[in-house]
Structures are given as structure tokens and as C-alpha cells.
Design brief:
The structure holds two protein chains of two kinds. By secondary structure, chain A is mainly α. Chain A contains 13 helices and two strands. Chain B is an alpha/beta fold. Chain B folds into two domains: 174 residues, Periplasmic binding protein-like II (D-Maltodextrin-Binding Protein, domain 2, 3-Layer(aba) Sandwich), CATH 3.40.190; 219 residues, D-Maltodextrin-Binding Protein, domain 2. Chain B is built from 19 helices and 18 strands. Chain B is globular, with a radius of gyration of 25 Å. Classes of the chains: A mainly alpha, B alpha/beta.
Chain lengths: 307, 478
Amino acid sequence: MKNEIQKKKWVRENLRSYSLLLPNLLLFLVFSVYPVFWTLKYVFFRYGGFASGDPVFVGLDNLIRVFRDALYWKSVKNTFVYAGAKILFTIPLAFLLALFLSRKKKGNAFFQSVIFVPTIMSSAVMGLVFYLLFNVYNGQINQYLLGTGIISQPINWLGKDHAMKTLVITAVWGGVGNYMVYFIAGLQQISEDALESARIDGANRLQTMWYITIPMLGPILKIILMLSITAAFSDMNTVMVLTEGGPTNATMVMALYGYQFFFPVSVGSVVSFQYGYGAAVSTVNAIIAGMVTILYLKLSKKLDEVY
Amino acid sequence: MKKLKQVFAFSLAAVMSFSLLTGCGTGSATSNPTGAEITTAGGAETSTVPSGEKTVITIWTKDRHDADFMQQKVDKYNAINTHNIEIKYEIYSDNYVQAVDMVFQSGEAPDMFVYQEQIFANYVHAGKYADITPLMDDEFKSVFANSFINGVSVIDGKTYFIPTGAVTCRLFYNVEIFERVGLDGPPETLEQMVEYSKKITAALSGEGIYGFASNMKGAQSALARSFDQAVQRSLGINKGFDFAKGEYDFTGYTKIVEIWRDLLSADSAFPGCESLDIDPLRTQFAAGKIGMYMSYTSAEPGVYANQFPMEEEKWACAEIPALSGVVNGAQDYTVNNGYLFNSDSPNLEAAWTVYTELFANTDNLAEYYSAGLGISLVPDAIAKAEPAQCYLNNPALLIGDTDSIYPKPPHTANTDAVIIEGQNYYDSLAELIWNGGDIEKGLQDITDRYNKAYQTGIQQGIGQDLKIENFDPMHPAQ
């Protein structure tokens, strides 16, 4: 009798919540979980797609090929460089912008909105626009730099020497607004009393920021850094549009390298469908990104300790 | 009230879940695959057809340059045909290959597709296209005798499509720029091409005019319309495969790689070729900033007539030169404007009727050729036509005596049979061109990787030995 009552109570309290979660759960299972198992299955097969006949079991051949694929490891190196540079510039810049714009001042809301706009823009469109801006021959950036005398020769922004820098600039521009908003949310949670006390004790703005604000942002900074690491490792759209991983694979990143075994990278490219190898590459990508995330979480435990 | 809210919440969740499942269900036979851009040419509205009355034939194409012309023909046919047939002519812009993949997987393929090399290669061996040989009569075979090309439209004795057009690559050059620097005609050797390019750049770079450009943002897109052809004419090798030896051999490419290095160097080439895409290149050519480049004969006249207008007398085209002017092989051309028939279509005979009366109608083909929309392969159409002015001004645009069709090399004949590890040869060549390094070592590496993949495919029973006895690169189609 008692169990019946408890059961009815549980149903009464939780049924509504779980039923509202059901659509999201279905979407998650179909579009996130199922593709992972589909991919893991084809890691062990040679499969050229729908028209190529039945998949052929090849055991660990695909994974062994990943480890001897010099181009894949070049893409891993490029991804670390890209992710590292993107985070190095995006996070401090987002923090500084949040610091300036989180105060309730006239115009701050407008600037917050403007800086946030790139986050909601299509990254493919963004890549296309920057492709035009960074054009070495008649792009606006070179024209401005030449016109103001900052440079005397046009810079080949999308050539092999500078393409990665250009990608990072585009990525920072696209991502800073998103992280600024997270920092603003974090700053607004900081107790005014702590800041007031620091001011009364004679701390200047820089000291307040260093000894009070940044440490108290610890927990949210941990989340922001983790999100930025995972996003940087899966970035692909901007690379695909801006450089297609070139020139000569100078900007090929892990996600794009795996993608090209399933889909054409550009209109003119011809795909040699290798679903099995692409699945193996994607699996190794996920393992690398996972290892980096786990390492980061171990190293960032201190950020949980707030004064 | 509380109970009412619970019921409402539960119902809402159930409806949302149910709508997800039905949203994933199959649509109509002509539903648009997700992500594919689809337009109907000219914006023509087709009326809703009550089922059971007219036979609807759905035709997919990837071509936009002839959209208005084709839609006009389709609309007229829909209005006057006496077979109770209605054609739905659908244009897929840039993701034709992906769209075809999706409909074959979902079982919703249209009745006919415009031929495209990759969709043909991907699905012909899977039996997705109908053998149209039994549908042809003797008159048809006679009119289209040039279109039965073994290894291209005819595979293992079965005919899958009838190409009525052809496309090749040529050197396009700016006549005005050439005159300004005192060059009285296009280069006749690859070495001369470098010399001319450097001369133009030296004389006119101050005005932002440069000798040569290539759309190297995509190495395959750039080199497949330029480098491949220079190799065919100079060495008689198609895409690295030597049919006489029956193996890949890129080692003879050394001199041509050196020439391309020179051609794309700072004292010759348009700045930023590493990241230049084909349309930005064409824009600059139309603006008179580029002396020479190489591209396909099917697209360029239309591009400079409509897309990036350039006066016709300012540009011309010529054959792609060979090393030292010595021609050792024909230049490959590809066929187009053929239609593939879905082997699972319930309307195959009706589709064939549409095809013969509309798309294989020699009057329509003559009109197409006269409009400068494509180069014809059909003698009857050519005889009836008045060639477009661009073909009269530039006869090099047409298929000539030095053009032929090569057999397909193993990696394009059957993509499953030759799985290359590492970069494809276009990316490897681009690396040698841009990054320097030992060319011979690099070419040997490409040769070894391609031969390894080729032999592996043969050993696994997927690939075939493609050696051709007495192969003559000057007449590869024989």
C-alpha cells in the first residue's frame, strides 16, 4: 500500500517533466547517439558508399592506416596550432570586452549586441566574406594597409605562409562575442560586497580585477575554456570555405580531413568515398579531442576553488 | 486545474514526439532532398497534375547556363505533345552529386538525369542506369553514331547515355594585352608560355596586369583543366597512367612541373593564385588583368557573354602547348549533354519518348549549338546549325583533330578499385610547385603510391589490369 502511494507520488511529480524531455531525448538518440554507433561500426569495414556494394570487413586496417597517414598527423598538428592560437586570443579579448561592457552604461547593450552578431552568422558566409576581404590582389584589407602606408607590398593572406593566421583572425572575430556573453554572465554573479570591500581596502581597478574578479570567475572560466577547446577542435566550416584546407594542406584540420571521405569539400572536388577510413579518422579525432578535454579537466580542478 | 495542466503538458509532449517521427517519413516521389538547392528554370509554374491523368516524367539537370533555353523547350513540349506526358525539369545547382546520392539511397530517383561523370561512375556498376540499346531503332543509331563511345557511354556492350556535346580545355588569352607587349600570337610551346607570361608581368605589373593565372585554391580543379592536358599532349599519358605499360608513371612529369613552378612564380603569375578560385580569376580576366589562363571550352564563352561581360574581340583561345612544341599524344576531351535513365523508373518507355522527341531532336540540338550553349558532336545538328559567333571567331573552341577520348585510368574507371593513401596526385603536384623540393623524388613517391593502390585493387579482385597492347596516344580512342 505504502509502495503504491509512493509510486503514485513519483508519477505525479515527475511525469510532466520527463514527458517534456522526451522530444529532446528522441532527437538526441537519433541524431547524436545513433550516428556514433553507425560510425564505430564502419571503422572495421571498407565501404565506398551506397553504390559500391556491401561493406567488406577489414579488421583494424583502417585504424592502422590512420597511424601511418602523414597527412592526417599534419592535420592534427594544424588543429592544435589553430585551437591554441584561437583560444589564446579569444578568451582574454572576450574577458576584456565583458569587463568593459558589463557595466550598466549607456550604449553598452548596443555594443554587446553588435559584438555578438558574428556568433549567429553562418560560419560559411563569414568565411566567404573574409575570403573577399583578405584577397591579396584587391581585397579591402590589403588596400587599406597599402593606402595608409602600413605595408608597401600586398600581403598574401591566404598563401601558405599566412593562411593559418588569417584563419585564426576569422575564428577570433567569429567567436569572441559568444564567450563575451558567458563572461558577462559570470561577472554579474560576482558579489558587489566583495568588490566594495576591496575598494574600501584601497585596491585599485587592476588589483581588484586580478585578486577578486578573476579568481571569482574560476568556475565559469573552467566551463568557458572547456567549451572553447571542444569548439576549436571541431571547427571546420570556416576552414572549408576560406581555404579548403589549403594551400597544399597548410590549413587542413582534423575535422575537415575526416569530412572529405564522405562529402566533397568544394563544388569542383571529386570525392573518393571511403566511409570506413573516414569513420576511423573521425573516431581517432574524437579520442584525441577527448584526451585533451580530460587532461584539461584534471589541470583545471583548481578553478573550482573559489575564495 | 492542476490535473488539466498535467494532461495538457503530456499531450503537448506526445504531439511533439509524434511530429518528429512523421517529419522523418518519406515524402512524395518528387520531394526535394534535404539541403539540395532546387530551382525550376525561368521560374515557370507547372500545374498540379491530378493523379492517373498525365504521365509525369521528372528530369534532373546540373546545368544552369542553358536553363532558359531548356525550360522553353520543355514548356512547349508540355503544351503540344500528344502522349499525355508532362515533364518536370529540375535544376540542381552546386550539389548535384550529393542530391543524386540521396535519392538513390532513398529510392526516390527521378526518371532521367543529365550525365555527370561522377554520378555515372558511382552508380553504373550498381545497375542504377538502364541499358537503352533495346529502345533504339536503326535510324537513331545512325544519327548518333559518334556518341557510342566504348568505355564512356558504352560499358560492356550496354549503352547508358548518348552524349550530344563535348568539352575540352584550351588556353584563353587577352588579345589586347598580347598586342601591348608585342606578342603576335599565342605561345606554341610550354617554354614560350612561361616566356610570354614573364614578359607581360615585367611590362605591365605596374598597372596590375600579370601574365598567367590559375585557380589553385583547389589544386584538382586548377590542374585538371591545365596541367593534365599539357601532359597528355607532351607525354601521351592520361592522369598519370601509361596505358602502353599498364602502370602509373608520373616520373616523366619533371620538366612540366618545373615549367609550372616558373609559370606560377612571382615574376610571372597573378598575385594570390594559391587561394584564387575560378570565378574571381574570370572576373580579373574580364577586367583585363590577366594575360592567359586555361579552362574548359563549354563554360568560358557563356561566362564572358553573360556572367562577367567581356567584349568578344578582346579574348581568344588556342590549343594548350606541348613541351618544346612536340606533340606526343592527343588531348583528352569529355562528353556532355547526355541523359541517363533510371533503371527502376516505371515510366522508362515514356521517358525514352520524351528523350527522342525533345532532347535528341536534331533541330533542338542545332538550335542549342547555334546559341553557343555547347559544342555539338552530332553531324546532323552541325549541318543544320549556324555556329554561334564565338565559335566562328575561335574555331579552337571546337573539338579538333588533335583531340580524342582517352580510356579512363584505373582510379577514375572504378574508384573502389584504387584507394590512394595520402594525397591525390593533384595535391602532391601542387606541393611540388609551391613548396619546392626534389621534383623527381616527389614524382617517384606519387608513382609508387598510385601503383601500390592499383595493384592492391587487382589482388583484391576489385580492379582490372588496364594495359592496352599497341596503345597509340595519338589515337587513344582506338
